[in-house]
């Protein structure tokens, strides 16, 4: 790497002049060290304060239609999260789209990831580029071009077009996530299975699939999150249908009901919870596997010894 | 050669690729063609849009919306620069001082993504509201007088000003900047830094000659991942801005969905796409990172 050679040159030049290393005053060094930590703390504050505001204002009892000023503590909205007309249909539609698009995009994306990680074939770099492109295109361009397609072929917009769009923008993210997992695992496991007379299908089902499953699950979670959160592409292709983000957009100018904050907070808490469970599970699995492996090694050593 | 390697070498990958590639072809690439096709038509919704290959659509659309194009570039560039200034130290602290809390801290970085995009932008509307704590504090400290003079804000308020829009954009895309920076900083071999210090480089110099160059891939990815969505954004300008802060995304959205002026909207959308492509290619040449993915 070019940067690496530059490093050695730079340090080499320093050495020639051979100035004694000045010890900076300990006080200033400490200040400088802490300054960076304080800055990072402020950055976290910037990241998290709006979320705190969302959750806090889900307990508000606003006097008017707008939920922008704090008035009174209330749990009314939490007790009746679907009390606002239209909000339930919007949430249900968002969930339906998210489930379906996640399933289809995960299947299509995983197959592509397997092909890319496993085979050397003609057109590989083109394929990689095709997968990369949707992630590097602004949503508004994807949304508007898809809308132009549907207008041009006089295809009515609604549930189907939203689903099509969500699968489209999810595929690339699934491929990238699953591919990273496939590159990370030991191919000899499959070879061992085949050597033990498992056929291709059994090997895939018993070895490959369980091994890439964490990657597939992570990809599915990402796809679900992207789908349920998407606004821009959905707005262009929804026609008369209203998903949860579209509902918020519609309410933004006339007054956002507290229920929006409640459902937003629920989604946030569920996502955080799932993530925590995932981390704990990974830790547990890591420990369990470590124990299993060390047990197997010991057994092998014993067998060798006898 | 084992049976597996032989199988995976010889069996064609194409059947696995086919469904996904067909989907992307039909719903990503074909629409781009239709966008181009629409941008050269004339007409209206009632009489239909006829293909006349009117390239002047582009000139007209760009001329009419020059202001919004320039504003989008300025806002997106400011937000990218701000996000970089916030993210670099943040990613540095997580990568070099995070220790066993690294994963937890990273989770905090992506936490905003767990709430809906519109909800978190509305939260900024609450924070920056005219009677809120932030605005009144800024006003009493005289900060708003200064920012009013600079043109960042106007009328002693934060909401409905360029500053509010840029703040919102910066916030919404911040994790896109922090994560790639973190990945590239985390990968750096700490022994290189020790070597630089042993060879009498002081800390700033070691940073400039070792850490910064080695984090260049992260800087490249992070700035692009922030700038590209930021320049097409219209939600922040819609919720946090005013008619004086309209971005090109707002124009495209209203032309498509309100005024049904499809050819002009398609021309703007295509221009945005082409502009970004040219920018990415030039940027890649300058930073010397050809590998995008």
What's the gist of this structure?
The complex is a heterodimer of chains A (306) and B (293). Chain A has 306 residues and is mainly α.
Task: Give an account of the 3D structure.
- The complex is a heterodimer of chains A (306) and B (293).
- By secondary structure, chain A is an all-alpha fold.
- Chain A folds into three domains: 24-76, no CATH class; 86-256, MetI-like fold (Orthogonal Bundle); 258-306.
- Chain A has twelve helices and no strands.
- Chain A has helices at residues 2-17, 26-56, 76-79, 87-118, 124-132, 139-152, 159-183, 188-195, 200-229, 232-237, 244-252, 258-305.
- Chain B is mainly α and 293 residues long.
- Chain B has one domain (65-287): MetI-like fold (Orthogonal Bundle).
- Chain B has a two-stranded antiparallel ribbon.
- In chain B, helix 3 crosses helix 15 (262-287).
- Chain B is globular.
- At the A-B interface, helix 1, helix 2, helix 4, helix 5 and helix 6 of A face helix 1, helix 2, helix 4, helix 5 and helix 6 of B.
Number of strands of chain B: 2
Straight-line N-to-C gap of chain B: 32 Å
Report how far the terminal alpha carbons of chain A are from each other: 51 Å
Q: Describe the main β-sheet of chain B briefly.
A: 2 strands, antiparallel
């Amino acid at each position: 790497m070019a940067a690496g050679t530059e490093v050695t040159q730079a340090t080499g030049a320093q050495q020639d002049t051979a100035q004694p290393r000045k010890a900076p005053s300990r006080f200033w060094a400490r200040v400088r060290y802490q300054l960076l930590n304080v800055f990072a703390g402020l950055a976290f504050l910037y990241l998290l304060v709006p979320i705190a505001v969302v959750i806090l204002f889900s307990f508000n009892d606003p006097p008017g239609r707008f939920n922008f000023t704090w008035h009174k503590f209330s749990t009314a909205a939490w007790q009746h999260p679907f009390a606002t007309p239209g909000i339930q249909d919007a949430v249900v539609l968002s969930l339906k789209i998210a489930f379906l698009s996640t399933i289809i995009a995960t299947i299509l994306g995983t197959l592509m990831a397997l092909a890319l990680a496993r085979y050397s074939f003609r057109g590989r770099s083109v394929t990689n580029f095709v997968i990369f492109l949707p992630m590097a295109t602004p949503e508004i361009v994807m949304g508007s071009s898809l809308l132009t397609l549907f207008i041009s072929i006089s295809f009515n917009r609604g549930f189907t077009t939203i689903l099509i769009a969500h699968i489209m923008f999810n595929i690339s993210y699934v491929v990238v996530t699953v591919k990273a997992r496939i590159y990370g695992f030991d191919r000899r496991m499959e070879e061992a299975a085949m050597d033990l007379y498992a056929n291709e299908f059994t090997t895939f089902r018993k070895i490959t699939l369980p091994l890439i499953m964490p990657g597939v699950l992570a990809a599915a979670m990402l796809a679900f999150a992207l789908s349920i959160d998407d606004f821009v592409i959905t707005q262009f292709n929804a026609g008369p249908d209203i998903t949860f983000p579209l509902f918020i957009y519609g309410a933004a100018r006339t007054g956002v009901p507290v229920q929006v904050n409640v459902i937003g907070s629920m989604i946030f808490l569920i996502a955080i919870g799932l993530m925590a469970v995932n981390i704990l599970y990974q830790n547990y699995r890591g420990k369990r596997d470590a124990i299993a492996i060390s047990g197997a090694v010991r057994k092998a050593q014993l067998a060798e010894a006898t | 050669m084992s049976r597996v390697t032989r199988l995976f070498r010889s069996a064609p990958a194409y059947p696995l690729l086919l469904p996904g590639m067909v989907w992307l072809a039909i719903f990503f690439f074909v629409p781009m063609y239709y966008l181009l096709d629409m941008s050269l038509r004339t007409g209206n919704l009632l009489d239909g849009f006829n293909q006349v290959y009117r390239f002047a659509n582009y000139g007209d659309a760009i001329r009419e919306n020059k202001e919004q194009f320039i504003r989008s570039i300025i806002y997106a560039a400011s937000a990218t620069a701000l996000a970089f200034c916030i993210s670099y130290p943040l990613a540095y602290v997580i990568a070099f001082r995070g220790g066993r809390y690294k994963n937890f801290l990273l989770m905090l970085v992506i936490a905003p993504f767990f709430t809906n995009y519109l909800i978190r932008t509305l939260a900024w509307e609450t924070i920056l509201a005219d009677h809120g704590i932030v605005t009144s504090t800024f006003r009493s400290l005289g900060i708003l007088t200064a920012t009013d003079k600079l043109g960042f804000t106007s009328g002693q308020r934060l909401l409905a000003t360029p500053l509010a829009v840029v703040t919102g954009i910066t916030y919404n895309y911040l994790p896109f900047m922090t994560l790639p920076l973190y990945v590239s900083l985390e990968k750096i071999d700490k022994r290189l830094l020790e070597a630089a210090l042993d060879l009498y480089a002081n800390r700033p110099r070691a940073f400039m000659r070792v850490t910064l160059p080695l984090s260049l891939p992260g800087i490249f990815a992070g700035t692009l991942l922030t700038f590209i969505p930021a320049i097409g954004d219209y939600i922040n300008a819609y919720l946090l801005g005013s008619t004086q802060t309209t971005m090109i995304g707002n124009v495209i959205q209203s032309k498509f969905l309100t005024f049904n002026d499809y050819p002009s909207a398609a021309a703007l959308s295509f221009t945005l796409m082409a502009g970004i492509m040219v920018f990415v290619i030039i940027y890649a040449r300058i930073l010397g990172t050809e590998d995008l993915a």
